[in-house]
Structures are given as structure tokens and as C-alpha cells.
């Protein structure tokens, strides 16, 4: 339907997360998507909605948590978060708060680009592993390509999303997601 990058990895849950990011892109929003999976079923899905809903808290992962609604601690502890990009501090914090045991990341750049996440000396994926989570990083190029395209088209919107004052816009634009 378009010339947008296509996901290479064969994982229906990551595809669902990526579909959310494409949906956001077509809405003029930041192309980051996420789904929450419980016992093989998607129970929450969302995409970054800062632009669409004017809410600074609605990163893709947070939108998926919101969409899943209130869940019991027992359910969270059986869930996996699929996200097109390595989660930021806010989304990581929520994931740790609810004690999800597993995170699957589509992109590699966000995970590998930060080497000292929260002063841990680790990447985001490494940090999550160090606190006991199982982390899968697919290293698929499509999420980065789509976000780079958005960031090139709307650098100010992207900088706002990551709390950046402009210094990171350029070669590093995809390194914090
Ligand atoms: Zn986030």
C-alpha cells in the first residue's frame, strides 16, 4: 500500500506492533507501536499518540498499557511487551513497575545506541536483562528506517518526544526511543 519499510522478522506480535507504528505515521504521529501479549493473545495495542491526542505520556508502550486497561498483578507477570523500539525510561519504568517478565524489541538502534542507560553502563536491553527480564532484540531495520523518515520530516516533533533540546537531532536521532 505504500513505500514504507516492511518488517522482515516473522513474528505476528511484532508485526502487530509495527502495524501500530505505521498507523501512527499515517496519522501524522510518531511511528512507534507496541502490543502486550498474554498467553498468546494480544490484550493491548497502541502507538505513540503525543501528536494525535496531545498527551506527553502516550508513548507507544504506554498507549498499549492504557489500551490493555487495568490488569491484575498475576496477569502482568505473564505478559510480554512487544515494542518496535527500545523502551525509554518512562516505558521501562512502567514495565518494571508491573513486573512483566519479557520484552521483545523490534529495532536494534535504540537498544544498542545507548551504552549507559540510567548510569548502568549497559544498553537498554542489557539493563533490562540485568534486572531479570528476558529480552529479545530482533535487529530488524524497518522500525529504524520508518522512524528516521519521520524524524527527517518532522525533527521538532521527534525531539519533543524524547525530551531533546535539539542536540541529538542529526545522526543520533534514533538513538533514544
Ligand atoms: Zn517511552
UniProtKB/TrEMBL annotation:
Gene3D superfamilies: Cytidine Deaminase, domain 2 (3.40.140.10). InterPro entries: CMP_dCMP_dom (IPR002125), Cytidine_deaminase-like (IPR016193). SUPFAM superfamilies: Cytidine deaminase-like (SSF53927). GO terms for molecular function: diaminohydroxyphosphoribosylaminopyrimidine deaminase activity. Residues 8-116 form the CMP/dCMP-type deaminase domain. This is tRNA-specific adenosine deaminase. It comes from Aeromicrobium flavum. The gene is cdd_2.
Amino acid at each position: 500500500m505504500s513505500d514504507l519499510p516492511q518488517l522482515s522478522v516473522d513474528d505476528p506480535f511484532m508485526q502487530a506492533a509495527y502495524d501500530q507504528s505505521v498507523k501512527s505515521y499515517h496519522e501524522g504521529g510518531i511511528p512507534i507501536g507496541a502490543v502486550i501479549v498474554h498467553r498468546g493473545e494480544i490484550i493491548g495495542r497502541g502507538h505513540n499518540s503525543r501528536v494525535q491526542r496531545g498527551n506527553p505520556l502516550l508513548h507507544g508502550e504506554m498507549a498499549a498499557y492504557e489500551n490493555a486497561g487495568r490488569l491484575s498483578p498475576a496477569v502482568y507477570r505473564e505478559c510480554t511487551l512487544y515494542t518496535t523500539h527500545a523502551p525509554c525510561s518512562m516505558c521501562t519504568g512502567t514495565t518494571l513497575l508491573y513486573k512483566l517478565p519479557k520484552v521483545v524489541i523490534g529495532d536494534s538502534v535504540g537498544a544498542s545506541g545507548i551504552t549507559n542507560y540510567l548510569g548502568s553502563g549497559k544498553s537498554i536491553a542489557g539493563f533490562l536483562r540485568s534486572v531479570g527480564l528476558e529480552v529479545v532484540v530482533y535487529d530488524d531495520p524497518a522500525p529504524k528506517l520508518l522512524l528516521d523518515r519521520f524524524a527527517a520530516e518532522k525533527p521538532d516533533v521527534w525531539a519533543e518526544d524524547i525530551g531533546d533540546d535539539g542536540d541529538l537531532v542529526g545522526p543520533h536521532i534514533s538513538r533514544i526511543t
